[in-house]
Design brief:
Length: 210
């Protein structure tokens, strides 16, 4: 799997373009702005974008969905619990205050253990609730895309509606730290660095002692 990382949007979201070198099929994970930069990269590499995958439903991670979908025809993917949660009109109103473009409807609803095929490559869905009810990580050894669940030396915030620190730390410990120590952690923001490993986070992430 080829991985290209871009920091995009007004909130510094780490967007990933993952692709199959053989078929040139690709998925864009969390297009949180700067859609032209994302699309320019895809065009320059001759990629066919077939999926837009959101690790969770917060607008800073899905505000580029509409523009990317319009340009590529890719299907939008999100976990079932976030589709339900962010479909609640009260939650929509709360996050509309950020002033970011809303996402078109989700077309592919996933659950824990599902596999998303991108050419000859695969991403396994790992449900990691806590930042949001339907937060997910995406695993394709040795790569792990952690969204706002796990950062380099930190974890996602849980003070927004739908958040739970207990759930998130439990998910990290039981679902992520059990992966091979050499697994590369690709976070949803670069607050403590743009890349880490499971070994480094298990050893020194202070939030995991909570």
């Amino acid at each position: 799997m080829l991985v290209h990382q871009l920091t995009v949007g007004m909130m510094g979201v780490c967007c990933y373009i993952v692709s199959c070198d053989h078929t040139k099929q690709a998925a864009i994970i969390d297009p949180g702005g700067d859609e032209d930069r994302i699309l320019e990269y895809c065009t320059s590499k001759g990629l066919e974008v077939i999926y837009i995958i959101n690790t969770h439903g917060h607008p800073d991670h899905d505000c580029g969905n509409g523009r990317i979908k319009e340009a590529t025809g890719a299907k939008i993917v999100m976990h079932a619990d976030d589709v339900t949660y962010f479909g609640d009109p009260r939650i929509k109103d709360y996050f509309a205050g950020l002033g970011l473009p809303p996402s078109p409807p989700v077309e592919v609803i996933v659950k824990d253990g599902d596999v998303i095929a991108i050419g000859n490559e695969q991403l396994q869905v790992i449900h990691t609730p806590g930042h949001t009810p339907g937060g997910i990580c995406l695993y394709s050894p040795p790569h792990l895309f952690t969204g706002d669940t796990l950062f380099a030396g930190a974890v996602g915030r849980t003070d927004f509606p739908g958040g739970s620190m207990r759930q998130m730390v439990d998910a990290i410990k039981t679902r992520l730290l059990t992966l091979p120590p050499e697994t590369i952690v690709w976070p949803g923001h670069g607050y403590g660095g743009l890349q880490s490993t499971i070994a480094a986070e298990a050893r020194s992430n202070p939030y995991l002692d909570l």
